[in-house]
Specification:
Helix content is 64%, strand content 0%. The protein is an all-alpha fold.
């Protein structure tokens, strides 16, 4: 915690506040966290302790050093419930859940939650699974049904869930070649997705255009080695 605090800067803290972070947190750049990550690599117990602090920087860093093979369902559910803003639910929790052995089953549970950030974690986990798992390890029929569900529900979903659903379409369309056309068709049917991103310059990407760009680069179906980055 002292090392993280020493890396904090007022400008980073101001930026994170504008994106939704709230106290307690220091304001540490992710690039600076990566330096510390290289020293520690993976540490299951330390990641649990850091996440339990409730400090946003420590919670995010916990995800960078978490040992996905040791994470239990109870650990992941606890993390999902404690993720109070989208940097934690969309990235930290979703990354580690997707890399763990419990990602798919937990994601299906989480997307049914009436708590916005838990639902966000669910859709984001499903998106990450599409990008890291071979298609042979994915239930493509289930993913097709999820595409149809997004098309029907996205405009009525809570704010950050809309963003996560849109990202889900992008990842499925980019990572699962057999479902690319269906994801594009759903995105075109949905049209513009409105998400309140606070006082930031962030924009919700157009899923159809994004997937098409990936296709034009010849990268459809290109998988990543891990979810976290």
């Amino acid at each position: 915690m002292k090392e993280l605090e020493a890396m904090a800067t007022p400008s980073t803290k101001k930026t994170l506040v504008s994106h939704g972070a709230r106290e307690p947190f220091f304001g540490v750049k992710i690039g600076d966290m990566k330096v510390l990550q290289k020293k520690i690599k993976k540490d299951y117990e330390l990641s649990l302790g850091l996440y339990d602090t409730g400090n946003s920087d420590a919670m995010y860093f916990a995800g960078l050093i978490a040992d996905e093979k040791q994470m239990t369902k109870a650990d992941l559910n606890k993390w999902a419930k404690a993720a109070y803003w989208h940097m934690l639910s969309e990235y930290t929790v979703a990354w580690i859940a997707a890399e763990s052995r419990y990602g798919y089953e937990l994601a299906l549970e989480w997307i049914e939650s009436d708590k916005e950030q838990i639902a966000v974690a669910g859709w984001s986990t499903l998106a990450n699974l599409a990008m890291i798992k071979p298609d042979t390890e994915l239930d493509l029929k289930a993913y097709e049904k999820l595409i149809n569900r997004v098309a029907k529900e996205i405009h009525k979903a809570p704010n950050r869930v809309r963003y996560a659903m849109n990202s889900f379409l992008i990842c499925v369309g980019s990572g699962i070649t057999a479902l690319s056309d269906k994801a594009i068709a759903a995105a075109n049917k949905i049209g513009e997705v409105h998400v309140d991103v606070g006082g930031t310059a962030c924009k919700t990407p157009d899923a159809a255009s994004y997937i098409q760009k990936v296709a034009d680069m010849g990268r459809l179906g290109k998988k990543k080695k891990m979810a976290r980055c």
